[in-house]
Design goal:
The chain is built from nine helices and 13 strands. A seven-stranded mixed sheet has the order 2-10-9-8-5-3-4. The chain has a two-stranded parallel ribbon with strand order 1-12. Strands 6-7 form a two-stranded antiparallel sheet. It has two domains: about 5-15 and about 260-360, Aspartate Aminotransferase, domain 1 (Alpha-Beta Complex), CATH 3.90.1150.10; about 15-255, Type I PLP-dependent aspartate aminotransferase-like (Major domain) (Aspartate Aminotransferase, domain 2, 3-Layer(aba) Sandwich). Helix 2 (about 45-60) crosses helix 6 (about 240-255) and helix 7 (about 260-280) runs parallel beside helix 9. By secondary structure, it is of the alpha/beta class. A hairpin with a 4-residue loop joins strand 6 (about 150) and strand 7. The chain has helices at about 15-25, 45-60, 75-85, 100-110, 225-230, 240-255, 260-280, 310-315, 340-360; strands at about 5, 65-70, 95-100, 115-120, 145-150, 150, 155, 170, 190-195, 205-210, 295-300, 320, 330-335. About 35% of the residues lie in helices and about 15% in strands. Bound molecules: pyridoxal-5'-phosphate.
């Protein structure tokens, strides 16, 4: 057992079992005499890893045959551009919901390529809630409707899947990927970087309805066209082989945890432990509306910013790492992704309680 709990927002904690397996297979993968890092991406060993990872992801999320799974690079940030370049016609417009910093970045990037309507925003209350759908000013002929399912910095998570009607629904799921069941069929496209909940940095996963492929803007780089990647089974060029391999091990680990419903139960339990404590005291505060609180990223403040340093120092001495909040928000943030054991959350709450006793 490792002696620390890592609350980083990403790159983030991975299951210890997965790291141990990767270590055991580091020099010689399954008797091949090679590390996965050294394998040709077109050889049968790596191909089997790649195909198994896709099969397991499809099984875990219930991804229907109507949707392609792409293993790409460039992070969710590149998807902020690839999405409009593929789905937003030059004279069309797209709808975006703004619930925080990542939505804001997606909107800003999309505006480089076309007209964007912000159909609802929670900026009026510092991005601490999800605007109710009844108040969204959607347009029926938008090229797509984009939302960020979990705002990693603000700690705001959609408690529902938006109803986009006939408009293709697009979600940034970077920080709640595989943490709760989602109805893939209701989405035209979902994307996320792997480094929050799935594996190492360097892999971006896109799940896209196949009938939307083939409409990329003329003149864009080949690498930016979803269809080219789909046609090449994500092997247009060298894929991030090591990251796909680790993601595949995480998918198998998730299956052993009872799949997505199994991990969701544990995520609910972990989040409840921390929120119940936050709600039981006036010493710490979380600004997010209860119904929209994230199960993955939990920001909280101490009564005085001068207490931040001693809080973090004591946390570190207890092996509770990377609790400092995002620079734009301040305070603390505990990211408790799938791989965070409940013992980590208990240890955090114990420290918070002890700190409150000595400083409250
Ligand atoms: C981290 C994050 C991003 C950016 O991901 P990169 O892989 O660093 O480009 C985008 N959206 C959300 C919700 C994130 O958490």
């Amino acid at each position: 057992m490792r002696q620390v709990f890592n609350f980083s927002a990403g790159p983030a904690v991975l299951p210890e079992e997965v790291l141990a397996q990767a270590a055991a297979e580091m020099l010689d993968w399954h008797g091949s005499g090679q590390s996965v890092m050294e394998m040709s991406h077109r050889g049968k060993e790596y191909m089997s890893i790649h195909e198994q990872a896709e099969r397991d992801l499809r099984e875990l999320m219930g991804i229907p045959e109507s949707h392609a799974v792409l293993f790409l690079q460039g992070g969710a940030t590149l998807q902020f551009a690839m999405l409009p370049l593929n789905l937003l016609p030059e004279r069309g417009h797209a709808d975006y919901v703004n619930t925080g910093e990542w939505s804001t970045k997606a909107i800003k990037e999309a505006r480089r390529f076309g007209e964007v309507n912000v159909v609802a925003s929670s900026e009026d209350r510092q991005f601490t809630y999800v605007p109710p759908q009844s108040a969204w000013k959607r347009s029926p002929d938008a090229a797509y409707l984009h939302y960020c399912a979990n705002e990693t910095i603000g700690g705001v998570e959609f408690p529902f899947t938006p109803d986009a009607g006939k408009v293709p629904l697009v979600a940034d799921i970077s920080s709640n990927f595989l943490s709760r069941p989602v109805d893939v069929a209701k989405h035209a496209l979902m994307y996320g970087g792997a480094q929050k909940n799935i594996g190492p940095a360097g892999l971006t996963i896109v799940i896209v309805r196949k009938d939307l492929l083939g409409h990329a803007r003329a003149g864009i780089a080949t690498m930016l066209d979803y269809k080219v990647h789909a046609d090449a089974d994500s092997m247009l060029n060298t894929p991030p082989t090591w990251a796909v391999y680790i993601a595949g091990l995480v998918f198998q680990w998730l299956k052993r945890q009872g799949g997505v419903p199994g991990i969701e139960q544990r995520n609910i339990e972990k989040a409840k432990l921390l929120y119940d404590y936050l709600d039981s005291t006036a010493f710490y505060t979380n600004p997010v509306d209860r119904s929209d609180r994230s199960r993955m990223n939990i920001p909280f403040r101490l009564p005085d910013a001068a207490l931040d340093e001693p809080f973090l120092k004591g946390a570190k001495q207890r092996g509770l790492l990377q609790l400092k909040g995002h620079r734009s928000v301040g305070g603390m943030r505990a990211s408790i992704y799938n791989a965070m054991p409940i013992e980590g959350v208990r240890a955090l709450v114990d420290w918070m309680r002890e700190f409150e006793k000595s400083h409250g």
